[in-house]
């Protein structure tokens, strides 16, 4: 791929994200790029820092994937870091968004060797089951939940009012 095209892909992904209308059932995004220097990828690592509801939703999604014959995704800590940053950003802004998704995807790609990155975001759900069911009911979210991914992480945080905000990032 030409270097100028490689730089343009994250910009194009952001433009598409900004031009698309997102409700709580339509917040998904993806990013694809080939890594030209695979020797630059780092070792994947797990983390025990995720909280109980994040683990519960992650397991719920993997159970769903298994039930339809898909592989279970492995929790990945670099992705968790970027998902957490984005969840905090959404809380600060008070809404869901894919702002700076191209930048997030590029950083994950550089650090893990990912060739395809996608994300689901949500808020305004009282429980993780409500969010999971809404993601399954949304074609774009379902595509990510059931996509060809090996790694993922979910960040779930509450704002000062106790409202849940969700960011799940996937990659292969």
Automatic annotation (TrEMBL):
Pfam families from the UniProt entry: CAP
Boundaries of every SCP domain copy: 58-170
Protein name: Cysteine-rich secretory protein family protein
């Amino acid at each position: 791929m030409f270097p100028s095209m490689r730089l343009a892909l994250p910009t194009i992904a952001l433009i598409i994200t900004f031009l698309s209308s997102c409700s709580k059932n339509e917040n998904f995004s993806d990013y694809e790029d080939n890594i030209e220097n695979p020797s630059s990828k780092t070792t994947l690592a797990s983390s025990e820092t995720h909280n109980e509801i994040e683990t519960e939703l992650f397991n719920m999604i993997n159970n769903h994937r298994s039930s339809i014959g898909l592989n279970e995704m492995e929790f990945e800590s670099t992705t968790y870091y970027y998902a957490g940053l984005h969840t905090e950003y959404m809380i600060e802004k008070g809404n869901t968004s894919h702002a700076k998704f191209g930048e997030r995807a590029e950083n994950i790609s550089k650090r893990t060797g990912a060739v395809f990155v996608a994300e689901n975001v949500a808020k305004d759900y009282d429980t993780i089951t409500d969010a999971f069911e809404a993601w399954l009911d949304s074609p774009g979210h379902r595509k990510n939940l059931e996509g060809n991914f090996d790694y993922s992480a979910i960040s779930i945080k509450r704002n000062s009012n106790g409202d849940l905000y969700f960011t799940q990032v996937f990659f292969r």
